Amino acid sequence: MDANGSRYHALVTRGDWTEAAQPDEHWAWRPADPAHPAALGQLVLKPLLFEFKASSAAPLPEPGARAGASFDAYGNLYALDADGRSIRVWSSGSGTITDFWPLPQAPAAEAEAGAFGPCAPAGPATPPRMDALVVTTGHYLVAASREAGGLLIFDLHGGGPPLPQPWPHMPAPEALLALDDGGVALFAAGVLHRLGPDLRPCLPRTASPTAFSPGPAPLPPPAEPPCQLVLGADATAVAALPASRFLVLRVKMDGLYLSVIDWAGTEGVSVGPLEEQIEQATADQEPTLLSTRTLAIEWPADAATEGFDAVVLAASGDQAFRFAASETAPGTWTFELQRDFIPLRRYEAGGLASLARGQVLHRFPSARAFYAGAGRWLPLLTLPRPRCEREGVLVGPVWDSAVPGCVWHRVALDARRPPGGALSLQSRAAETPEGLALQPWRAEPELLPHPAGSELPWRDAAHGSCGEVQTLTCLLQAATGRYLQLRIQASGDGQQSPGLATLRAWYPRFSYLQHYLPAVYRADAAGSAFTERFLALFEGELTRWEDRIAAAQLLLDARTAPQQTLQWLAGWLAMEFDGSTGPARRRALLRHAASVQARRGTVPGLLLAATLAWEPDEVDAEAWLAAPQNLPERLHGLRLQELFGLAPPLSGSAWRPAQGRAVLLAALNGEESLLADAATLQKALGFLPRAAREEAALMASWRLAELPEDEPRPAGGDEALAFDAYLAATQACAPLRQRWQDYLARRWRGIQALNAAWGTGWRGFDRIPSPLYLPAGSAALADWWRFEAQVVRGLGPAHRFRVVLPLPGDTAALDFDELARRRAAVERAVERDKPAHTVAEIRFGFELFRVGEARLGHDTRLEHGLLRRPELAALATLSIWPPLVLGERDLGGGQLTHPRPLPPPDRVGLDR
């Protein structure tokens, strides 16, 4: 409700736009972009699939019997050449394509006639023609060849020549599929033939009767998949799925279908042919001819992501179509066409090769499938080629104002109107719903962008996933009646679509003519209608100002304040934001401003500021702001080290006051001077007395100094005057003496207490110099030792601290520029919040693991050792530590790779 009492009906959510309203078939809902938390979904014109139309003269390449290729576990791609007599490999490391088998033979040197030597080997026999190949989960390369009479098995771990596996009467292979158990399935003439993990053809089990049965009947063996699975003559292509299931491409009378079948024969077929989805998704509505021999599966790059996509090629070989598979119910599958433009360049009818789930090639990190083209294997990538419907009509719901004779005020539409797009508004109003259906649609004025943004007070403009959203407004001209209905007509250029985010219809209109002008201005009906609409223009702007004034309290709440006012609000609280802090983090800091400011300069406050600067804005900081004292207990969190705690303790053999003065004199060989041999003092005390050396140097320099002529020299016998002159002259340049006097003042509080304990007669603490000899009394000796062993030794690291930064959890994806930016943000935060007399340094955790600096049980909690991270512990159980890469990994965070990949421990042998 605004300041004048007007209210509004609105369309905001997906249910409002798609259920309450009545969009035609040309509309579709686009969800909000997750990257923008404040963004709203939009109703857009339905996206269309861009279809590349080949010329009529272009040939239609169909894959032959030797189509397709297979990746191994390390990203190497194996494929047959054009004639099927050799296997070529595309290495993932170098990116080169070389011969895998047979290897090219070096030309033999011709021997002289009659010379003694080995006979020249016979020329290599012509290798057999191979029909299909696949790499199994056990890392064997299996090639099927009818000409060779069976299979050729290559051990990719051990190397060497292929192992022939005879298979009499082997059917003509069309494809080989890798099974989960390490076996292989051969597809031929609509039938799948299973080979076990030993890569031998499966034979059906026959129950043989036993002559003796002394005990109870043995348990039946566990159920195994059948040796054959009949798919039918309409099955033309097959791909393997997990859990012993297969994706089948079937050719029926009305088109191509996709289905999922298991070894038991249970099958779930897609609803409707694939060509029908493509025709409905294209702009020309022309039939599309698909290839019946090519089928591939695109697995997600994240191993934890469920689902897969099926890829089918156009028969022309110019384009691929992607269908997202989903199991809506057990045994029920749907395949929805994705409106992605996937072109193929110089496709050579070699089929497709797919990466396994979670497998990524560093050369093509976004590709999931590859095709043979232009003499090499190319990634199957999606290109941006947007297409959408050109026109669409949306009829809004019937809105009830509950006010008879209501004058509907205006419409505010938050929408995106791209260049070439248009939005027009129509309305009709009546007193009854029945009469509303009989009213004609009335065109309203053009929707124009409001220069001040949204009419709602202090509301930021919403940002949609497809660009900027602006508020379009329109003053309703003659919408009078209790019920109102709106209709929106949208048009575009076929490449960019208008987007409808929110719509608000305000009612009733607050009339300046009725409330503020005399009745004479309402005498003429036509003139009064114009005057009311004219004054409504000013009323809308003035009401917006009144709403902002009435809603000024929203500016003082961090939850509702606009983003551009957060810095202004922080100024009232004496807070300063770093330039890299996002809006969500700024709002959280403002909500907890009282506790944050109260802890500023303390250890929890500094650790909180450093953590907020180091962690990304996407991480929720509410728990840290509510209880910053728990930050030191975070696993892999930041650490704050006060360096005075890093001072090494005295050795166990060093003297302690409890041992007495006689023991110390014996260790010093009876020497009471604190200026004795440095090695002797260091061995006996564990440290060198610094205050005594400072005092001795000052005394020597004062005695040798030339006094000014106008200053009287002290008498030689008046030692008191000489000592007073010495103290006055050297007090300013004797910092250790000042600390010694301050220590004694804090220790004894009064000079009488010190004299009673020491047995002396000092007149004040400011007259006590640093001792040059061991104090005679036990109390004075203990005070001197505590000062030298604790206070003076702690001066070096005093008021110094260190902030230790951890590395991110995913060390394989380190962005060094991002680390440098975040470290600079921590430095700015610490420099801003630390006490002025302190000195701070920023270090990474792995820099502290060195002898003499790391403290076991304290600093080691930061990383738990680079090899004991949780994400690396899982790799340790599999014995596949990440390899060391120069410039990317830390020493100790990986291992040198083996010259040859090691086979898994459970690998099935082939009795070679």
From TrEMBL:
It holds the Pfam family Tail_P2_I. InterPro entries: Tail_protein_I, Unchr_phage_tail-like. Residues 892-912 are annotated as: Disordered. This is Phage tail protein. SUPFAM superfamilies: NHL repeat. Coiled coil: none annotated.
